Amino acid sequence: MLHHVSLGVMNVERAAAFYDAVLGALGYKRTAQYLPYAVGYGEGTTAFWIQLPHDHEIASVGNGAHVGFSARDQEAVQRFHKAALTNGGTDDGAPGPRPDYGPDYYGAFVRDPDGNKIEATVHAPPRKARARPARRTKAVRPAAARKATKAKTKARVTVRKVKRKAKRR
Length: 169
Hints:
Order of helices and strands: EHEEEEHEEEH
Radius of gyration: 30 Å
Largest sheet: 4 strands, mixed
Number of strands: 8
Structural class: alpha/beta
Oligomer: single chain
Number of helices: 3
């Protein structure tokens, strides 16, 4: 549904240092940059932008708005949160389950250096060790089926021999 999302920031280079670390923890990369005005992130295509406001006014935070980023697993959510706090962000909800949002919802909320609220979330139960599948055993075919297969193979060989003789003539 969404093509991209943009957040206004006061200083793109400072914000880019923060988002390089935070989004990098989730596996996203910087995909575009138009310094000193804007930087974009994504997975090949740019889906998230940080930028100076187009009206040249001071960037302001939207009350009630936040941007949620998909994480691959709970460990990525934890890395996101740690990277945010290490790079000038503030905690707005430590990593953990959010049962009010759903039974398998796990997320973390932070504020970037400009006060924008962002989140990393994964909607899957923790991974469990996968059991190895049982070894397959060869199915035993009935004797009649084995005989039929042998007969077909023998017939093919006979047809090939006849064709080769015909070519030689």
